[in-house]
What does this fold into?
Amino acid sequence: MDLSTSLPSQEAPHPSLPAPSLSEDNSRKPNKLASGVVRYLDATVDGRHVDLIVVSTCFTTGLIDTVMFSAYGTFVSMQTGNTIFVALGASNQSTKPFSWVFSLLSICCYSLGALFFARLNTLFLPPAQRRATLMASFLIQAVFILVSVITIQSGAVHGGNGAAAGSGVPQWNELIPIAFLSFQSAGQIVNSRAMNINEVPTVVITSLLCDLFSDPKLLAAVRANIKRNRRIAGFLLLLIGAITSGWILKATGRVEPVLWVAAGLKLGMFLAWAIWPWMQLES
It folds into this structure.
């Protein structure tokens, strides 16, 4: 008897396994990419050689302060000078009517900028050495310079050399670039503090020179005193930036070219933080 014809088949049909969904497989790729981007932005930057960017901001200080003082009679970084101008206004000895108002606005906006960038580092995007924090800080600084130069380039604010001399009548629209540039300049010194490079305040020379020449290791070998090297580099770069700004202003007779250069440098620093190596933590 042929059992194969009399007995039912013992092989039960296997339930079909669900094939992997193509949409689910594709959805994992963006999630993986997003998590990688977040991890990259959340990383702490490698602290080696970050002083190159911090010291470079001294050059932008020289650029901007020189052109702003020449054109509008006000500093946007060096608030010691602005404080003196406010004091002269209080005693009615200003060379231009209400010029003390411009200096006072610069002081106030600089102070607000310091408050904002410090809170950016500690509350909004901590820690200060995080890649996203540094990128955000320098992008904001670059955008504020761009806003200033666009208001001048568009003709909303006079941008000729010696604009502050004018007819003696205050040009209140000049307060716009002064406010934006003063606010952003505070980000530089906040970043230098956050990166623990306190020997380069980036916006002031007085304390830098004092620390430089009071350093007991002033004459040490080049590699034996990094802080001294940074101070010298900061002073020279600010001086070179100021000289460069003066020559550009003399050649063009306009404020905008100098500010475009400064904005480009800040954008370059933003991009530098975007590709800066991250700190490899030991497992």
Notes: The longest helix spans residues 226-252. DSSP finds ten helices and no strands in the chain.
